[in-house]
Predict the structure.
Amino acid sequence: MVIERANSSHLDVLTRLALKLWPDNTWENLRAEFEELLESEKDACFLASVEGEYVGFVQMCIRSDYVEGSSSSPVGYVEGIYVEEHFRHRGLGRMLIEAGEQWSKSKGCAEIASDTELENMESQVFHKKMGFREAAKIVAFIKAIE
């Protein structure tokens, strides 16, 4: 199992994996987003491979705005993490989070944060196993104005 920082040569593999995490998105949109963030100093992606096959990724960013539950700034933020289902429970998720932690620390962060949807119990269990503590539960609202 190998964890490596993604670069522009990984755009297609990142996009392929990200579409599994965010299926409501499109190939074109995700690829364009990754192309931009891989050039940013405030963003990073790490890939997990097993025997040369890319099977997971984590997308990290640095947030300087308020992050729910944080006591410092900036904060490393897990924007998304995904591991192919048949490669889960082998420590890859932990290795990806640890890569994100080290990168965040190198950017001056003392904390990392993340979020998940209220109904995504599998993700909540994963986060707690990784050492995250629950900071808050929220319900977001929006209203169109005319």
About this structure: Residues 6 and 46 are 5 Å apart (CA to CA). The first helix runs from residue 11 to 21.
